[in-house]
Amino acid sequence: MNAVVGRNVCVIGLGSMGFGMAASLLRDGFTVSGFDLNPEPLSRFVALGGTAATSPAAAATAADIVIAVVVNAAQTADVLFGADGAAGTMAQNGTMISCATMSPEAARGFEAQANQKGLRYLDAPISGGAARAATGDLTIMASGDPAAFAHARPVLDSIAGKVYELGDKAGVGAAFKIVNQLLAGVHIAAACEAITFAKAMDLDLARVYEVITASAGNSWMFENRIPHVLEGDYAPRSAIDIFTKDLGIVADIGRGLKFPTPVASMALQMFVMTAAAGMGRDDDASVARMIANLAGLDLPGMEG
């Protein structure tokens, strides 16, 4: 398919989510450049027809749309506005799409920086996981200037199944994502506690999974994460450290609002305990391993 005229796209951060987004764009005929610190996804990206670059600035050269799919606000600041960031090289009047989970205050600050440079900015955190990223079916919780939405619409339609336009200023999308992350973190922690509790009662864990996923106690996170536990596979799809960050943002916002978040705070401590046990970079289902270690239990993959 021929490249879409006027739609040169740069994806910065080719992890599991960013790579899927870049692949979706290539599949839909966009001209896509990319950057990642890890050479392995860059090689796979090139094999799909993308153009690899050695820095965010190089990747963003003349790009109409720059999508930053990095871990946090600090990395977003670096790849977009740092000394070798995208803001200095992307096309005039281009649009930045920022996907990292961050505080609303940080998102508003990035929008102001972009506008000062004559650029548009969408606060556009994502949800759905690597599988949905690969098929272009992500959920995007976005806010920003209507002109930014209009400019980025073909790109958004390529990478997402649902795009929620939540406001005309940055920060609203970030706030929606933080509500999602509060629930996601609590549900992962609860799912891991439940499956380990089942182990303590010497139940057949595969049977527990079958029954619970057909019952009222099921959650998206139980259904998605507990197979990792059953398989003893803790390769990071989403790492423990992600939720120590995101639930930490929840705690910070709650403290600022004088709003109590007792359940989220307990979940945060479970993720912090798992990270302290040396599993910060492992899959977030590792909370189950942390609980199992405390209780003297062996989950699949822990035997012996």
Structure report:
The protein is α/β, with parallel strands linked by helices and 304 residues long. It has two domains: 162 residues, Rossmann fold, CATH 3.40.50; 121 residues, Orthogonal Bundle (N-(1-d-carboxylethyl)-l-norvaline Dehydrogenase, domain 2). The chain contains 13 helices and nine strands. Strands 1, 2, 3, 4, 5, 6, 7, 8 and 9 form a nine-stranded mixed β-sheet that branches. Helix 8 packs across helix 10, helix 8 crosses helix 11 and helix 8 packs parallel to helix 13. The chain is globular, with a radius of gyration of 20 Å. The termini are far apart.
Here the CATH topology of the largest domain equals Rossmann fold
pLDDT < 50 runs, ≥5 residues: 1-6
Helical residue percent band: 40-55%
Q: β content, as a range?
A: 5-15%
CATH architecture identity of the largest domain: 3-Layer(aba) Sandwich
Overall pLDDT metric: 95
Globular, elongated, flat, extended or rod-shaped: what is the shape? globular
**C-alpha-based Rg, rounded:** 20 Å
Q: Give the domain tally.
A: 2
CATH class of the largest domain: Alpha Beta
Structural class, from secondary structure content? alpha/beta
Number of strands: 9
Kindly report how far apart the N and C termini lie: 53 Å
Number of helices: 13
Instruction: Give the H and E element order.
Output: EHEHEHEHEHEEHEHEHHHHHH
Quick one: biggest sheet?
9 strands, mixed
The CATH homologous superfamily of the largest domain is termed NAD(P)-binding Rossmann-like Domain
